[in-house]
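Training component of the fellowship. As part of building independent skills, the fellow (R.M.) carried out the full modelling exercise for a liganded target. The chosen ligand was NAP. The inputs are recorded below so that the supervisory panel can assess the work.
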Amino acid sequence: MQYRAFGRTGWLVSEIGYGMWGMAGWTGSDDEESSGSLDRAVALGCNFFDTAWAYGDGRSEQLLGELLKRHPGKRLYTATKIPPKIRKWPAVSTLKDEGLVCAIGISINRWQPANVLKALATGLIDSVQVVYNIFDQAPEDELFVECRRRNIAVIARVPFDEGSLTGTLTAETAWPAGDFRNIYFQPDNLKQTLEHVAALRPHVPRDMSMPELALRFILQHRDVTTVIPGMRKVKNVEANLAVSDAHPLPTELMAELRGHRWDRWIDIP
Ligand SMILES: NC(=O)c1ccc[n+]([C@@H]2O[C@H](COP(=O)([O-])OP(=O)(O)OC[C@H]3O[C@@H](n4cnc5c(N)ncnc54)[C@H](OP(=O)(O)O)[C@@H]3O)[C@@H](O)[C@H]2O)c1
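Fellow's submitted model of the complex:
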């Protein structure tokens, strides 16, 4: 596992971190399997975990708390997103002064990577979390440049476009009622997404899977501090974490992947 400096915090975090939404918010999750996957990730050198109170109303944070207790000797970094109970946002510098948090980040709305730029100019922000993958390349335009200039850490989220860039979806794919992916992959978006995935497929090298290619594309960008694939299965943890030790992608392949940029807007969270 390779590690990268987390902006100006002085932390060294694994360039492949862990996304913890699915295990608490998506259908088909199994706590025992998720906990086993988290343990395997720690054993393989992952030290950065992304959660939120909203992921299962605290369920994901609970799973992370249990993980921390199981590994007391390890330095594991946790990033969460917590709304204040009284719904009134405190001044962020107070949270730091009181020692409640070590760093402050902003999780940026999907497909609006530049709407955070004024907030970054306050100097209060240590990290951003943004959707960045083979399709969603817009963060490169302005956000990454600004983060580099201000030494702000970049957490790349949704590396597989919620699953399409694993190459496993079909026109018939659907999830049980209440699963977010039914909203995201609403019929129009699923159809268009599958066309984009089909266009990408011939460019996946023979000795590489689509998920591996998706992660290597992201890690190639030196402004990315860590990428946080969502994982609930040990086999996915092992496959994804192994990508950190791969060589950089060839220039010609990167040029081809740049052509798969897809700027879009659909009304979803
Ligand atoms: N701030 C926000 O508003 C926000 C929004 C979305 C996401 N996030 C964060 O970003 C993280 C990542 O995004 P995400 O989980 O939504 O989507 P994602 O990482 O783009 O995709 C996750 C999906 O990919 C599958 N997968 C992972 N590795 C695979 C592999 N090697 N082969 C095949 N399939 C694989 C997972 O399967 P299994 O689950 O079955 O292992 C899961 O179905 C979240 O978990 C969360 O921490 C934050």
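The panel noted the following from the submitted structure. Residues 3-258 form a domain with the TIM Barrel fold (CATH 3.20.20.100). Residues 19-22, 50, 107, 129, 157-163, 166, 211, 228-233, 236, 239-240 surround NAP (CB under 6 Å).
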